[in-house]
Input
Amino acid sequence: MRRSSQTQPGGLSRRQLLLGGAVAGAGAVSAVAADQVLNPAPAKDAVADVLNGTGVVPFHGAHQAGIDTAPAAHATLVALDLRDGVDRSQLASMMRLLSDDAARMAQGVNPLADTEPELSFVPANLTITFGFGAEFVRRAGADPAAHAWVRPLPAFKVDQLDPAWNDGDLLLQVCSDDPLTVAHTLRMLLKDARRFATIRWTQRGFRRAYGSEPTGTTMRNLFGQVDGTTNPALGSPELADVVWVKDASWLAGGTGMVVRRIRMDVDKWDRLDRPGRELAVGRRLSNGAPLTGTAERDTPDWEATTAIGFPEIPEFSHMRRARPETADEVIFRRSYNYDDTPDDPEAISNTGLVFISFQADVDRQFVPIQTRLDELDLLNEWTTPIGSAVFAIPPGCEQGGYVGETLLA
Output
């Protein structure tokens, strides 16, 4: 017999289900309306304020971008080896091509040969920096004695260098707050360079994402340490004195760059208690303050001692070993973290630091610091340098020019 009310197995009629659904729907609408009242959608202007894709860092100028520039969230460094037979005139042709495309992409404009032009429209504070290794400088015909530090660093006993991460003739450093922009930019540049050079190594690094912390916050590495507290301030006269070459050579207005790939044993670090970590570093992990202070940028008291007469900041601490002993021993750090797939299936991490420093003279400024760290730095128990390279970073160029023209023109 047909049931006129179309009662469902649970005892509810179709009419009741429909009515209940309507009531539930009305309730949901009311809930959404209430949520919109209590949590209104941000105004369009407020949303626009947090967007970062259109941020532009000028490519042209007296100095190359990517040095005295706020570090972006993502970086990829690629070292290239020049092909046999590439001579001075071909180096100039390559750098003209690279500079032209880099200048376009830094503005959010696609290169002329870009087959995916839509990927070039979001620069997100893109910077592209070029560096020259010893072989590049030699083929360009420069006097090698003028900047003798453009060569591999001295051997240090803590090093376990893998040739796969060492040296290089030409460096491309590409930084942006958008990893897609980094990837596309590098593809365009490597297409420009492939007639002249081959890839030697690639290192990818990261910091906190854009907007995660206030601008100017010191980065943290994957040990949890603040990294770069003592850096000269961006745009300051001190930074200019530390970084820019001031002689009358082709490198005037440029700088020296050290790239060190440092493997960090975070699994072993995990077994060290917090007081031990802070003694190894010389700073408090919570806010980066020296062990004799309360805030990150407090001046350390190197003479302070404990109740039993030991230095508050131990002699073996990284902070004490890295401090300058002369006014010359100052560098500008601009490092990035890496976290790659472990080579060992039993390991859970392959983590470290792409250490980057800029200084006008590597031998005078960087090598003395690294020598002291090599001699006595407790952090060496958990860190191992596995790659090392030195590059001369030429000055910037003006519109119509190219990076390297002071050497190649």
Notes: Confidence is low (pLDDT under 50) at residues 1-38.
